[in-house]
């Protein structure tokens, strides 16, 4: 899956991809953003539009 187009995808698909990458590859949202050249602010905003917020204790969007 091409993660570069992540911000253009449906939020319900993005939540699954992002949480999987956070669980398996990245220890924080900052690391995820850096690794995949994403904007943390844009990702957070996209997720917030559907009521999801990053939980750093669990390293996932809920």
Largest sheet: 2 strands, antiparallel
Strand order of the largest sheet: 1-2
Cα Rg: 10 Å
Number of domains: 1
- Span between termini: 22 Å
Instruction: Indicate the overall shape.
Output: globular
Low-confidence runs of at least 5 consecutive residues: none
Q: What is the chains' assembly state?
A: single chain
Q: Please, what is the average pLDDT?
A: 91
What string, H for helix and E for strand, traces the elements in order?
HHHEE
| Structural category | mainly alpha
Helix content: 40-55%
Overall strand count? 2
Give the helix tally. 3
Q: Please report which band the strand proportion falls in: under 5%, 5-15%, 15-25%, 25-35%, 35-45% or over 45%.
A: 5-15%
What would the keywords be for this entry?
DUF4250, two-stranded antiparallel ribbon, mainly alpha, DUF4250 domain-containing protein, 62 residues
Provide an overview of this structure:
This protein has 62 residues and is mainly α. The protein has one domain. It is 48% helix and 6% strand. The protein has three helices and two strands; from the N terminus they run αααββ. It has helices at 11-24, 29-35, 40-48, and strands at residues 54-55, 60-61. The protein has a two-stranded antiparallel sheet. A hairpin with a 4-residue loop joins strand 1 and strand 2.
Quickly describe the structure:
The protein is mainly alpha-helical and 62 residues long. The chain has 3 helices and 2 strands.
Topology:
Layout: H1 11-24, H2 29-35, H3 40-48, E1 54-55, E2 60-61
Antiparallel strand pairs: 1-2
């Amino acid at each position: 899956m091409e993660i570069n187009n992540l911000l253009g995808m449906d939020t319900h698909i993005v939540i699954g991809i992002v949480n999987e990458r956070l669980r398996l590859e990245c220890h924080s949202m900052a690391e995820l953003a850096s690794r995949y050249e994403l904007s943390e602010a844009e990702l957070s905003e996209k997720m917030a539009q559907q009521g999801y917020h990053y939980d750093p204790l669990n390293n996932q969007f809920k």
